[in-house]
Amino acid sequence: MRIGMSVNGSAQDHDVEARTLLVQYLREACGLTGTKIGCDTSSCGACTVLVDGESVKSCTMLAAQADGATITTIEGLANGDEWHPVQTAFHENHGLQCGYCTAGMVLAAVSLLEEIPNPTEREVRLGLEGNLCRCTGYHNIVKSVLAAAQTLQESK
Amino acid sequence: VIPASFDYVRAGSAAEAISLVGEHGEDAKFLAGGMSLLPLMKLRLATPSVLVDVGRGRKRAGDVLEIIRALERRADATVAPAHGLCLWEVGY
To answer: What is the mean pLDDT of chain A?
Structure first.
């Protein structure tokens, strides 16, 4: 079947099998391998992307379900050479260890801060509940998200 | 893991969704968000031959608040009429 969507601002149009998962579509058809496949069962959140601005686990959504949608992956978050404040915060606060969960964590955090612009530490931990870090680097991830929230608040 | 092959059809209305599932019979399944059905399909615990997507135009998390504030059951969605076995009367 023919599907099309806007991925990181560029129009994509491909002929895919109905069973193609969104994560597969992004990685294989669009060549955007920043989105990772972790558990493949929607438990770990490594494949999190933004579909129409909201975080979605792309291993458990069909590409066909995203037909016509606007997708943001980790590749599309920065504005040219300028990182998104959440990316900067992860860098500055060492919010990653091996980095495998990072793309998903960052996008889940962007979606969380969209919903709760000024979260408490507890709200950050609850909000990122669906994203697992097997290095157990949660402490700095939470710190990064809180720092990003502050930067985003100050820039308003 | 990728689910087994199936046909994907998108329903434009409730009536169309019902008639599509009627047309394809037992092997057709409604696809709402897919967060439960797709994992089952990946494990081959469910192998529908047709998916009828009714999950387009879904509500956002924030809409739930509005629905609660409206104090009106129908602000959420139309409830399907009882179909099949149901309680008609309670008599004493």
So the answer is: 96
Please report the pLDDT score of residue B57 as a whole number.
Answer: 66
The Cα of B51 is separated from the nearest Cα of chain A by a number of Å equal to 9
CB of B61 within 8 Å of a chain A CB? The answer is: yes
Of A24, A41, A62, the CB nearest to B8: A62
Give the strand pairing for A70-72 and A2-7: parallel
Q: Which residues of B touch A115 (CB under 8 A)?
A: 61-62
Cβ-based contacts of B3 with chain A (< 8 Å): 19
B23-55 pLDDT, tens digit per residue, is: 888 889 999 889 899 999 999 999 999 999 988
Q: How far apart, in Å, are the Cα atoms of A76 and each of A53, A134, A136, B36?
A: 12, 25, 26, 29
Neighbours of A76 (CB within 10 A): 20
Q: What is the mean pLDDT of residues A132-149?
A: 97
Residues in chain B: 92
**Residue in A2, A19, A44, A54 to test binding to B, most B beta-carbons within 10 Å:** A19
Angle at alpha carbon of residue A11, lines to A10 and A16, rounded to 5° = 125
Interface pTM (ipTM) of the complex?
Answer: 0.83
Q: Is the pLDDT of residue A71 over 70?
A: yes
